[in-house]
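Supplementary Methods. Inverse-folding protocol.

Structures were first reduced to a discrete structure-token string of length 208. This string, shown here, constituted the complete conditioning input.
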């Protein structure tokens, strides 16, 4: 799903979603995570998840930015590979995802950016065209948007908004598309929360 992302800029967040004009429709809520969908073609998988986590923004930012360990908590993620550093916080990178048999595993080949404001951090990525970086053992997905927004609500609370719009390409059964849309954002956020709690336990044990 999301994390290495163009230069640090002050931005208006409405600009980020200018390419997502269609309204989001509420689907469900589970353990405080609100899930939304959007009208799209049969090939496109769109979702938005919103959650308020009782963790300070800096801790969430630190875990998400650690791409080397992202596979330990992000659902179905096998690995992250950095291809090019274009500038500070501006990367070309790949994320490799496991897909249930008989579908082939997927590669997200992305250009990523990070934007910062005083009380907000935004990770954003989309597909980039570079044939030399395609892994032939994976199906290359087309990602129109991945946006992960961290917004400080209070010192110990952060709102997380996770937006995804992408075409997995290749053969993928409809039941799996629906599973990705409903389960991936939930598992991404909950796994992130569990990872942070484990890290906090380690800090407390070591007296950091």
């Amino acid at each position: 799903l999301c994390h290495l992302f163009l230069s640090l800029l002050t931005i208006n967040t409405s600009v980020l979603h200018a390419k997502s004009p269609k309204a989001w429709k509420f689907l469900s809520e589970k353990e405080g995570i609100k899930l939304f969908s959007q009208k799209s073609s049969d090939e496109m998988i769109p979702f938005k998840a919103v959650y308020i986590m009782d963790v300070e923004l800096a801790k969430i930012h630190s875990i998400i930015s650690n791409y080397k360990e992202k596979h330990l908590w992000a659902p179905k993620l096998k690995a992250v590979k950095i291809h090019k550093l274009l500038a500070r916080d501006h990367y070309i990178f790949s994320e490799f995802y496991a897909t249930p048999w008989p579908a082939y595993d997927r590669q997200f080949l992305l250009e990523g950016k990070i934007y910062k404001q005083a009380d907000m951090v935004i990770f954003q990525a989309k597909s980039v065209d570079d044939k030399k970086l395609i892994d032939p053992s994976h199906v290359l997905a087309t990602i129109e948007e991945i946006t992960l927004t961290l917004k400080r609500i209070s010192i110990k609370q952060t709102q997380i908004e996770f937006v995804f719009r992408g075409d997995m390409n290749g053969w993928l059964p409809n039941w799996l598309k629906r599973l990705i849309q409903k389960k991936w954002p939930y598992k991404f956020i909950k796994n992130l929360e569990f990872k942070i709690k484990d890290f906090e336990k380690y800090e407390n044990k070591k007296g950091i």
